[in-house]
Structure prediction request, 337 residues.
Amino acid sequence: MNTKRLTEQDIDEAAAILREGGLVGIPTETVYGLGANGLNEEAVAHIFEAKGRPQDNPLILHIPSADHLERYCKEIPLTAYQLAEAYWPGPLTMILKRKPIVPDVVTAGLDTVGMRCPSHPVCHAILEAADVPVAAPSGNTSGRPSPTTAAHMWEDMDGKIDAIVDGGPCSVGVESTIIDLTETPARLLRPGGITLEQLEAVLGEVAVDPAVTRLMGAGEKPKAPGMKYRHYAPKAPVTVVTGDPKKSAEYIAAHAAPGDGIICFDEFAPLFGSHYVEQLGPAGDKGEQARHIFDALRFFDHTPVTSIWAQCPDASGIGLAISNRLNKAAGFHIIEV
Ligand code: AMP
Ligand code: MG
Prediction:
């Protein structure tokens, strides 16, 4: 298949491809998504094929505004509208009870569906023009780091999908926060661009799913099926070092073998002159770190490194999402200093 290169001038073409059952790589503020018409079972099945995604890992439905929720969801709690008012359009996915119009292939047979209203202007325009809900997971090959630039999408999906729309680098850089509103208290299933603190400001108490902070044991079933897979992983194994940034940098400098890859905060790059280094951003700027995390993980696949060390921020704010992605990339191989 010849994958078409589209730009933000080509909104109508992207929308037409989606409506007619094709697959399009779409920029969002979180990561690039691999979109299809969420009401077209065959088109949605092609997403799983293109990504090599396990069939039991459901997709998120993307809509242009909260007004569309009732088309696809039932028994919608007031909290959904309160969250939408506060954080939509934006990097927040809500798990709600689904209506029968949503095909099983989207939800992997669950009786719930993930709903999101993205803020990226190009994505929003495509959703408006397509006039169908767009089912989309992240646009990476399953298991690889999520794409945060159009170039990443080309790396994984060239020849496998109909088109990729270049909307520039993603401004958040990690996937949406997933909150399950079918339980009381609401449960955080995946940390992301909307922080736990922001959710608590609207909802009060929020439960945090154990899959957010630790490896699931054999036989344990996380509520977001995607959280059970090894994820975001570069080809070389990753060791995460947490704790005070200066101490973690010194620990890595003392233990890294020559030729190991290093992911570090900007301030500490001079310690690692002889290594392949990816800078996450300043130790004090988690927004910048979130924007760089997936690009950093992808970078090493283009190098000969056989082992990667990564500094990791603390878990407050968007640090919870960054540390979750790093820890998953590391298979929860974490050293605390
Ligand atoms: P991705 O955006 O590629 O990370 O994929 C969507 C994520 O949303 C996956 O990790 C799924 O497990 C999660 N998800 C989608 N729908 C549901 C649902 N109904 N219940 C729980 N998690 C969901
Ligand atoms: Mg994904």
